[in-house]
Amino acid sequence: MLDLAKAFLERKELPEWRLEAELLVAQALNVSRMGLFLIFERPVSGAEVDLARDFLVRRGRREPTAYIIGKREFYCRDFAVGPGVLIPRPETELLVDRARELAAALGVEGDRGAHAEPAGAERGQGENAKEPYRIAELGTGSGCLAVTLALEIPGAEIIATDISARALEQARANGEALGAVVHWQVGDGLAPLAECAARNGPFDLLLSNPPYIGGDEAGELAPEVIDYEPREALFAPGDERDYWLRRLVAEGVELLKPGGYLLVELGAAQGAAARELCAARGLSCEVRRDLAGLDRVLEVRRPV
Ligand SMILES: C[S@@+](CC[C@H](N)C(=O)[O-])C[C@H]1O[C@@H](n2cnc3c(N)ncnc32)[C@H](O)[C@@H]1O
Asked: Is 211 in the pocket of ligand 1 (CB under 6 A)?
């Protein structure tokens, strides 16, 4: 069954045909991917064959595997996803890595409640060591970033927003399933975060993987993306690629404590624009690269 599935997806010229065949057949047989290799002797039922065939036909039509099996792994945890919710991407894990490093430098990581001041830590933000470490996310989608940060930085207080009620419902369900405490808020752009900052005080960290595809880049997207994933998660307003980058650098930084950080996921071609936008506002910044060597994360520290 696995051989047939692999051969079918290879004929369809799907680059990850081996992995995807295993994921789809495992889902049809209701076992883990590893579990597949332990049940070679087990007869499969007609219903299981029908289900696997249905999955493979859908994948052959370029429906994303994550939507077919209803989940995608992010930072070693499964996140449920479905139509209307962006599928988490591996490069977004870089934001988590960096957020963890920044929190750890302040002694927040792994320390519930009040966090200790580490020797020599650079501390412009969170002057009062008893204050919670406050994180805000704009455009949470499946909740993969906010939930992962809540679990990886247990001392943090997190608010995550999205304009899409469907996405937020999924994020909330993922948070509950994984045992993460996050304040979820449906809302448009930076307004809900500005209200939260006005009410409870500014943030230590604002992060976002905003829609950053320009109108002229639509033709470069794979059918899995352009035909299936939500447009509002992909395309920036007015098809202006740098729309959210510009707004986050201008208005997002204002929501941070002095010494707080802004982390924004970038498209590979946005590095230069990110540096220019920061320079124009007198902000020093760093553009970090992903494992493929492409510009991927803008990091800005609000001056102390
Ligand atoms: C690229 S996706 C990122 C999703 C998730 N954070 C991730 O990394 O997988 C961008 C998200 O921003 C949301 N979004 C788009 N426009 C928005 C707006 N005006 N206000 C709030 N969220 C918005 C989309 O619904 C989508 O979930």
From this structure: yes
Owning domain of residue 28: 2-61
Number of domains in the chain: 2
| Lookup: tokens for 14 | 């799907």
Q: Whose CA is nearest to atom 9 of ligand 1?
A: 88
Q: Whose CA is nearest to atom 4 of ligand 1?
A: 141
Strands 156-162, 133-138: pairing is parallel
- Domain presence at residue 42: yes
> pTM of the predicted model, to two decimals?
0.92
How many angstroms does the Cα of residue 108 sit away from the middle of ligand 1?
A: 27
Cα(140) to centroid(ligand 1), Å: 6
| 24-75 residue pLDDT tens | 999 999 999 999 999 988 999 999 999 999 999 999 999 999 999 999 999 9
Domain shared by 56 and 102, yes or no:
no
Q: How far, in Å, from the CA of 3 to the mean position of ligand 1?
A: 38
121 falls within a domain: yes
Helix-, strand-, coil-residue percentages of the chain, each rounded to 5: 45, 20, 35
Regarding whether 121 and 262 lie in a shared domain, the answer is: yes
Residue 279 CA to residue 264 CA, distance in Å, equals: 16
95 CB near ligand 1 (under 6 Å): no
